[in-house]
Structures are given as structure tokens and as C-alpha cells.
Amino acid sequence: MTKGAKLRLGIQSVEVATKLIRALVKAGRPVPLKELAALAGMPAGKVHRYLVSLVRVELFAQDTISGHYGFGPLSITMGLSAMRGIDVIHAASEPLIELRDEIDETVMLIIWTKQGPMIYRFEESSRPVFMNVRIGSTLPLLNTAAGRIFLAYQPRKLVWPLVRSELEAPAPSVMHLTESSISELIEETKHHGLASVSGDLLPGISALAAPVFDYRLRIVAVIGALGRSEELNIEFDAPTAKSIRRVANEISRRLGHEPE
User: Fold this and answer.
1) Is the dihedral of CA 87, 91, 94, 99 positive or negative?
2) 225, containing H or E segment
3) For residue range 42-93, what is the model confidence (pLDDT) as tens digits?
4) Strand, helix or coil at 1?
5) Burial code of 16-27, b = ≥16 C-beta within 10 A, e = fewer?
6) Measured between alpha carbons, how far is residue 228 from residues 12, 65, 108, 142, 205 in Å?
7) pLDDT-derived band of residue 35, with 50, 70 and 90 as boundaries?
8) What single string gives the DSSP state of each residue in 29-68?
9) Could you tell me which of 203, 258, 192, 212 has the C-alpha nearest to residue 230?
10) What are the start-end ranges of the E strands in 173-237?
């Protein structure tokens, strides 16, 4: 057997232990041995043998009263260290380009600022869209897909002052909105986990967007795609929407969030 082949074989016990770690992540709470074994798809006796070592090295910990197993001090330290080394800009870089290539539409990474949603990164497709927004542009909340995502998931105290400013001098596409209908829009956005607009900000341009969350369940960015209305399907069950949701979920996972 060559040296390369030996390396590819790996250490089976490490891979089995990782199954238990993933099972506990999936549980989201300390669990008894039998439940952990069921989640990992392993015999309870085998799981117990691994838990003895995992507790010994502090990757797992056993509650002295309930007997349930949860993450130990070393796992917590590792997790916090990993989180400090990851930011959404870095985590989204590669997936954003892959999304652009997959759907062949212009895609964006939008972050939150005191002035509202701001375009941080812009990846044009082979079918560029000519418009007056670029990197550094601030987007309104009510008539953009990214804005509606932030409106739905940011704390009310951050977004409603901006909403009221937009309602005081409304664009034609939002003149019909009231605080009541905006609340309904927020609930609809949360229900789908997506937002879309068609021609609301720019005539003939449609957009789709999905939220990115971190390990603290906070929205940290929005992934958006835009294109000509006759070419971009913005239905929430269409392939493009599914791709955007999948990529947003993948970036969220990189930031420590496990989407439902």
C-alpha cells in the first residue's frame, strides 16, 4: 500500500467519534446515551465506549445528576475559537461566485449599516444588468428584496426609523403600504425565508434574496440575485430561489448556524 493510500484510509475511530459530535449538534441539547446512539445510528454499547474517551478528553461532558451527555469544555473552547476566526465576508466569498456561475445571474452580498442595507460585493453574470447601484450603494427597505429580508429579521428598533423615513417620502412602488400591510409583508417574508420584487426599484429588473445567520441566530448578511424581469424567475419554488436559499444556508452553516 502506498503512503498516499494509507493517508486516504484515515483513522476510523476519529470518524466514528465525529458521528457522535454531529449527532449531539443535531440534538441541540444534552441527551441520554440511548437517544445519542439513535441519532448517530450506532449501537448503545459502542457509543458508551466512545463516550468514555470523549468525556476523558473533555470533548463531551456527562451531567452528574441526569446522566445526559453534552459538549465538554474543550468543544466549547474550540467552537468559540473557530467563530472568532470566521466572518461573513470570508465565508461568503467562494459560495457567492459559485451561485453566480450556477444560476448565471448577477449576485450580491448585502450587509447592514446604520444607513440601512449596503451592497458589499457584486458579482456580474454573463448577462450583466445595467443599473445605478454598485458596491457601496445603500438600498431601501421597502422596495428591494434585500431590504425586505433585513426588515423581517433585524430588530424592530433598527429598521422602523428607516421605514418611517421611506413612508414619509414614498417611492411610487410603496405608496400603497401602511404599517399594517408592512407587518403582513414581514410575516410573509419570514414564512418563505425569501423575498422578491419585480420592477419595484428599477423598471424591468427583478430580484430575489435570502438571509444569512450566524451562530447567535442573528442576521449578518443577505444573499441576493437580480436580473431582467423576463429572464429571472422569482417564484419561491423555482430553481433559482432554491439555489439562493441553499447557498445562504451553506454560508450560515460556515458561520455556525444550523438552518432548520
Assistant:
1) negative
2) strand 219-228
3) 999 999 999 999 999 999 999 988 999 999 989 878 776 665 555 888 889 9
4) coil
5) ebeebeebbeeb
6) 51, 61, 15, 20, 5
7) very high
8) S-B-HHHHHHHHT--HHHHHHHHHHHHHTTSEEE-TTT--
9) 203
10) 195-198, 205-213, 219-228
Give dist(CA 57, CA 95) in Å, integer. Answer: 35
Please list, in sequence order, all residues whose beta carbon lies within 8 angstroms of the beta carbon of residue 18, skipping any fewer than 6 positions away. Answer: none
Measuring CA to CA, which residue among 131, 89, 88 is closest to residue 106? 131
Give yes or no for residue 7 having a pLDDT over 60. Answer: no
Give the predicted TM-score (pTM) of the model: 0.69
- Using only C-alpha atoms, what is the Rg of the chain? 23
According to the model, what pLDDT value does residue 174 have?
Answer: 80
Phi-psi region of 214 (alpha: psi -120 to 50; beta: other; left: phi over 0): beta
5 pLDDT higher than 80: no
Question: CA–CA separation, 186 vs 201, rounded Å?
Answer: 18
The amino acid present at 8, given as its one-letter code, is R
How many of the other CB atoms lie within 10 Å of CB of 243? 20
Which residue bears the cell 422569482?
A: 234
At 110-129, the pLDDT tens digits run 999 888 898 988 898 888 77
